[in-house]
Structures are given as C-alpha cells and as structure tokens.
Amino acid sequence: MIKASAKLKLKRQLANFVWEFTFEMNESCKLCFEAGQYIAIIVDPKTRRQYSIVSSPLTSEGEFILTIDVKPNGVSTNLLMTLNIGDEISFIGPIGNFVLPKTLSTNLFFVATGTGIAPLRSMIETLIFNKSNLKHNIHLHFGTRNINDLFYTDLFDGYFKDGSIKEYVKYLSRESSPETKDGYVTQFIPGLSGEIISDSQFFVCGGTEMVKSTEDMLLEKGVLVSNIFHEKFY
Ligand SMILES: Cc1cc2nc3c(=O)[nH]c(=O)nc-3n(C[C@H](O)[C@H](O)[C@H](O)COP(=O)(O)OP(=O)(O)OC[C@H]3O[C@@H](n4cnc5c(N)ncnc54)[C@H](O)[C@@H]3O)c2cc1C
C-alpha cells in the first residue's frame, strides 16, 4: 500500500448520477493493484472515502479509473464533482481482499447493482485480457433502478457478442424496457441447477441490502459460503 497523489485526466458522465474519473499517477509512481481492490481518497485530514478501481491492472499502466455515484452529494462526491482536469487527489491504496481467488471455478457469476459494477468490471476484464483464463464461463447480472441509470452497456454487449462473456442480463427495479428484465438482480438464483452450483463462484457488489439478500438466496440454494465473495459499498 502506498500514499500517493494522482491528477485528473478525464471526467465523463456515464448515466443519470454516475461519473467516470480517469486519474494519472505521477511519473515516478505506480499503483500495483489486484482486480477488485480499492483506493481511499483523502478528502481532508480526518476524512477518507473508498473507491473501487474499475480499470484492469493489465491495462492500467500509470493510470486508474473510478466509477462514482454522485447522488449521495456528500463531502467526497462533492469534492470529486468540483475537480477540474489537472487537479490532484491524495489517496492511499491499493486496499482490500475482494479479489479473484487463486483457484477459479468453471462458472463465475458477477452480480452488481449501480457502481457496484466497478470492481467486477476490473475482474471481468482481467479474466478476458488474460487469455489463459478464457476457459471460464463469465455470467454478469447487473441491476439499476431505471433505464437512465444503466451504464457500460455497449462495453458488456460487445464482450457478450464476441463470446468473451457467456451471459449478460440487465435488470431494472423501477421500470420496464424491452432489453431488460423487470425486478431485482437476484432473480436468476432460483433457476440455478445443483450441477452448475457445484462448479461456480459468485462475486457480489453493491449496497448492504442487495449484498445480504443475494448472499441469503445463494446460501439457501446450497452455495458454499467459501464460494461467495462480496464487497459492500454503504
Ligand atoms: C470498499 C468500498 C468501495 C467503494 N467503492 C465505490 C465505488 O467504486 N463507487 C462509488 O460510487 N462508491 C463507492 N463506495 C462508496 C464511497 O466510499 C462513499 O461512501 C460515497 O461516495 C459517498 O461518500 P460521500 O462522502 O460523498 O457521502 P457521505 O456523506 O459519506 O454519505 C452520504 C450518505 O450516502 C450513503 N451512500 C453512500 N454511497 C451510496 C450510494 N452509492 N447510493 C446510495 N447511498 C449511498 C451513505 O451511506 C450515507 O448515508 C465504496 C465504499 C466502500 C466501503
């Protein structure tokens, strides 16, 4: 773990309240992280806020990307929204144990709501870019409230179309659309067969309520606790 600073290189809006921030490390400094880990931004001497790194370590030479839900409108999201290109942040990192385990099952289920997709995108792209890992079936279940909250759709549609990921299902909990399922991201769980479950791992990220209900449903279905990995954002 290092304490370092990085300059804002790019800032773009992805969805209603979601912004993507690309930061560039100082030339002398590199962030050696594992897919799924996060940094803690030092907002002021007494305040730190954690953000998962969305980019893959395999593509992040000297820079890293964060995907941030600015809706909380708190001390950190306000600071981030007022940053201009070239402005610096201080942070510590990388931190966290929410990473891909050394031994991977055949079926890898990634389940996220909102910006919970961030560490999962890093993991999924690391698996895709590291071609030796392509023997795994990657399933992505991604939920938001409304259609305007969805993001990275073209990216994951592309991975689905070129066969890099086996399944990509989008869920909306508050409205309907032809390309999405109505309801919660957990609705694929009851249909999982015992055979699939016996060779699967599950990576879950989002708010506490969503992570807890996903975990409860997986455990009820007979998934071993050791095959469930999670990160809670709030
Ligand atoms: C390990 C870890 C990784 C994280 N990674 C990310 C990330 O990649 N992207 C990201 O957007 N956030 C992430 N978070 C959440 C982030 O650290 C902050 O909590 C969030 O940005 C709010 O900070 P704030 O200072 O602006 O608001 P605060 O004043 O701290 O919070 C205001 C209120 O909003 C709630 N809240 C926080 N986040 C959300 C949310 N997404 N939706 C609804 N309510 C929320 C808090 O519980 C609090 O009640 C992560 C949290 C953890 C613990």
TrEMBL record:
<dbReference type="InterPro" id="IPR001433">
    <property type="entry name" value="OxRdtase_FAD/NAD-bd"/>
</dbReference>
<dbReference type="InterPro" id="IPR017927">
    <property type="entry name" value="FAD-bd_FR_type"/>
</dbReference>
<dbReference type="GO" id="GO:0016491">
    <property type="term" value="F:oxidoreductase activity"/>
</dbReference>
<dbReference type="InterPro" id="IPR017938">
    <property type="entry name" value="Riboflavin_synthase-like_b-brl"/>
</dbReference>
<dbReference type="Pfam" id="PF00175">
    <property type="entry name" value="NAD_binding_1"/>
</dbReference>
<protein>
    <recommendedName>
        <fullName>FAD-binding FR-type domain-containing protein</fullName>
    </recommendedName>
</protein>
<dbReference type="InterPro" id="IPR039261">
    <property type="entry name" value="FNR_nucleotide-bd"/>
</dbReference>
<dbReference type="InterPro" id="IPR008333">
    <property type="entry name" value="Cbr1-like_FAD-bd_dom"/>
</dbReference>
<dbReference type="InterPro" id="IPR050415">
    <property type="entry name" value="MRET"/>
</dbReference>
<dbReference type="Pfam" id="PF00970">
    <property type="entry name" value="FAD_binding_6"/>
</dbReference>
<dbReference type="InterPro" id="IPR001709">
    <property type="entry name" value="Flavoprot_Pyr_Nucl_cyt_Rdtase"/>
</dbReference>
<feature type="domain" description="FAD-binding FR-type">
    <location>
        <begin position="1"/>
        <end position="101"/>
    </location>
</feature>
